[in-house]
Amino acid sequence: MRKIIVLIIITLTIISCSQVKEKISFKITGTIVQNSTITKEIILITQTNEIQDTAKISSNNFEFNGKVSEPTNAAIIVDGKRIKFPLVNDEIEIKILNTENTEFEINYKNSQVNNNLQSYYNKESKEYFDKYKLLEGQKVKSTNDDIKYKKIISQDSLAINFIQQLVRKYESHSDKSGLSIIINDLTGLIGTRNHPTEIGEFYKLLPVNEQNGFYGNNIKTYLEQSSKISLGQKINFDFIDINQKAYTINEFKGNFILLEFWATWCGPCISQIPFLKQASKKKDKIQLISISIDEDLNKWKDKIKDLEMDWINIHYKQEKNDLKEDFFITGVPYNILISQDGEILRKNITMTELLELLN
Known about the structure:
The protein is an alpha+beta fold. 40% of the residues lie in helices and 24% in strands. The protein contains twelve helices and 15 strands. The chain has helices at 2-24, 113-136, 145-171, 179-186, 196-203, 208-211, 214-228, 267-271, 273-280, 297-307, 323-326, 351-358; strands at 26-32, 41-46, 52-56, 61-66, 72-78, 81-87, 91-98, 103-108, 238-240, 246-248, 256-262, 286-292, 312-315, 334-338, 344-347. The strands form four sheets. Strands 13-12-11-14-15 form a five-stranded mixed β-sheet. A four-stranded mixed β-sheet has the order 4-1-7-8. A hairpin with a 4-residue loop joins strand 7 and strand 8. Helix 2 packs antiparallel against helix 3 and helix 4 (179-186) runs parallel beside helix 7 (214-228). The radius of gyration is 25 Å and the shape is globular.
């Protein structure tokens, strides 16, 4: 009887160890189908910067071994081309069909992280985005601000429903691999980023290590920003513009005020300038204040001239304020729309919504 008990304990220990091994490490075995690769090495990197590894290509085969502390976006680089995929601690098979067009097949032995993320990016978020753009394309002809905001309220409802649907899906999901990546994406996805309460509830579904990981910390920063800079909050501060002229926000009460955070090196920021120029013509309705987070002041000043940004331009480093810290800015473009009464009316309003509000 004693031998049987010992045998059971040993068996359970072996099973337990094998399960732990599966959870704490990954093994990628890869094959390159075509024979036209120039290099004899292949590189593996992760978005979290946790993994930066190089493997030899031998007879069109390669292998990576290691561990990640959380699911992460990763990429294999071969012949200068990036093949992007989610990396988790699992046994992963990758078959590269074409390095030129980055075509590949991937198989995970124990997790469905790829299915989760493919479902989100290729189906769920795409369907949501299409519906959002349909609402955005609707024309609202009215001088009544309340009627104009009905469309924005509809977009808000759509965003909330989308987040809640995902929460319901993953609440009962046996494999939540990649969930931190999805929630992190929601904090920046058009429309959804204005709903920290719903995203905060979603965030609670993450295991503790992911809540405190790379994506979890991004989400926490977003939630902190949202709680400290909230809708309805009164905004007032003094500042000096690019021409050393002093202002206070309260000077512009009675009009909308748009605080637009940007940088000269930010492509999406630059693409919004034509829309801001249209908005700047409505001087009787809105005051634009572009706030640069550039470190190179000369580049900032030159860019303003080049782009003919003839509204108020200021730098985030002010004598009494660090506006980047005061407004918890973690990335650009980012904006805050202040009402005629000096309260935060909207965060990250789209240029289409802004122009419709002013028309």
